[in-house]
Amino acid sequence: MHVRTFSHVRTLLVGAALAAVVVALSACGGDSNANSVSTQSLQHQADLYAIDQIERKWHKSISRKDIDLMMTLWAQNGTFTVGPGQTLTGKDQIRRFWVNDVFPKTPPWVLDTPAYKIRETVSGDKGTLYFECDHIDLKTRKVIAVTASDMQVTRIDGRWVITNDVGSTPTLSD
Predict the structure, then answer these.
(1) Distance CA 53, CA 160 (A)
(2) Taking the mean position of all CA atoms in its chain, how far away is CA 169?
(3) Ramachandran region of residue 124, left (φ > 0), alpha (ψ -120 to 50) or beta?
(4) Long-range CB contacts for residues 98-105, cutoff 8 Å, separation at least 24
């Protein structure tokens, strides 16, 4: 009878584990370019989803008059053009605008964006987001205003935030 020592058993186990890793890597490594393209595609889709969440949180924060949620969407040095010649710079100015000029003056409403009025792009850590908002009066259930936001967004510390937003009132074209 042959007696195996602990070091023999350990050597066999390490060898078996290494063989399993080599087999797994060789099975996956057949087309590393395809894996890279697949990973890039998944990242692109994840980035578009994260950018889309800005629009959702934007509407949620305005509908609920939730200034804290609104401010999570902005870069520290973000800019917000609210009218011709009226550009706010930095979170403090943007916060004051929402708190003093928008939230207290708006009736109870819900904001909605039809899916066909949303456009997102992404390239690396930069992207764009455009959407139009239908402002719906809760009492009459009628659209009382339509606004648009044309944003530049950036990934900062792993989070997508607004770096520049130009607000407007969209017009119908022929």
Answers:
(1) 9
(2) 23
(3) left
(4) 98/67, 98/70, 99/67, 102/62, 103/65, 103/67
Domains of the chain: residue spans and CATH: 53-168 (3.10.450.50)
Rounded CA-CA distance 81/93 in Å is 11
Give the number of residues written for the chain: 174
Phi then psi for residue 128, to 5 deg, are -135, 155
93, 90, 58: which is closest to 77 by C-alpha? 90
Distance CA 136, CA 104 (A): 17
- Mapping DSSP to helix (H, G, I), strand (E, B) and coil, where does residue 33 land? helix
- pTM, entire model: 0.76
Neighbours of 164 (CB within 10 A): 17
Token pair 């943007």 in the structure block, residue = 94
**Could you tell me the mean pLDDT of each successive run of 10 residues in the chain, 174 residues long?**
39 40 45 75 95 94 93 98 94 97 83 89 97 90 91 97 94 63
Q: State which amino acid sits at residue 145.
A: A
54 C-beta neighbours (distance < 10 Å), count: 23
How much of the chain is in helix, strand and coil states, percent to nearest 5? 50, 35, 20
